[in-house]
Automatic annotation (TrEMBL):
Pfam families: DsrH. InterPro entries: DsrEFH-like, Sulphur_relay_TusB/DsrH. GO terms for cellular component: sulfurtransferase complex. This is Sulfurtransferase complex subunit TusB. Keywords: Transferase. GO terms for biological process: tRNA wobble position uridine thiolation. Transmembrane segments: none annotated. Coiled coil: none annotated. GO terms for molecular function: transferase activity.
Length: 97
């Protein structure tokens, strides 16, 4: 299953809830303000690493927020083509707001 999270984990509990319900075969795509979770040296990047789930960040959202060069190397940065590929790979999807 592909989970998409759109809100900052510093303002909502969406990412926390998502991490609570994921399985090891799931993947997470962080969009919009959720990309702040991918910054180096923050509690969320550490929490995500512990989960062991594959996490993607949308490059365009990182660029819009001026944080492309501040992303932890654990996360995979993808563009809109990568977003489409993930959507095609995962028939089941869950959006967290």
């Amino acid at each position: 299953m592909l989970h998409t999270v759109t809100t900052s984990p510093f303002h909502t509990q969406s990412l926390q809830s998502c991490l609570r319900y994921i399985s090891q075969d799931d993947e997470i795509l962080l969009l919009q303000d959720a990309v702040f979770a991918g910054l180096r040296e923050n509690i969320w990047s550490k929490t995500i690493k512990i989960s062991g789930v594959k996490i993607y960040l949308l490059k365009e959202d990182l660029m819009a927020r001026g944080i492309v060069d501040k992303v932890d190397e654990y996360f995979e940065v993808i563009d809109y083509s990568g977003f489409v590929s993930l959507s095609v790979q995962h028939e089941a999807q869950m959006k967290w707001e």
